[in-house]
Task: structure prediction
Amino acid sequence: MTNKVVIGGNWKMKLGIDESIQSVKGLIVATQNLDLSSIEVFVAPSFVSLSDVFTALKASPIKLAAQNMSEYVEGGYTGEISPKWLKSLGCEYVILGHSERRRIFGESSELINKKVHNALTHDLKVVLCIGETAEERASGRKEEVNAEQLSISLKGVNADQLKNIIIAYEPVWAINSRGLNPTGDIIPATPTQAEEMHNFVRNWLVSTYGEQGNQICLQYGGSMQPSNAKELLSIPSVNGGLVGTASLKPEEFTEIIKSAL
Ligand code: PGA
Result:
């Protein structure tokens, strides 16, 4: 099966520079007596905090991730961030295709596919997010929507490159995000719902990539918390978590990390 369980913290636009430094320092202290060698942990602060967080992480096994990047490498693209710069700032991972990028900022799977290739070319590992909305699920389209996001976002990615990709299945309705779920009705996927979709994604990957599809990490995301992490992570096809809200507080994030050990 997959190599390592991967737990990622996505800090979104929720922690400024000082708060990010505080949070990462707290995380280092909270995890200092844990043996993290069997798993991988990353944090994804805002672009402006990457450098300081990397400095704080220097002696730690915790890795750095960016939350997004450009489909371009350099040039006249005002406001964009190059994968080259993320690499030079110490990023090992980049999150691409997060539902907030897809649904609030209108990123298409075609655009995300360009970013995926750009990241892989520049030696960044990709956390590719996919997931259906409540409406898509209610209309019986959850498999179709996730399969389409996978096939377009991964177009042209070969089995060898797939080794550097994590798929994060994040049902949009389960993400604790006012931007995505303004009514505030947010409930995590049940273990049964998560297992069903993770098995679907695993089968899609195996039928597309053969045995390599069995090796890659499938993270679950959407209201993962200390209270539900252990059960979700005990599902064979759930190989990690992409954690938003509960990753902001070092103690809570550490509890989730401990559930993966
Ligand atoms: P949440 O966010 O854990 O706050 O639901 C997850 C995510 O958006 O990656």
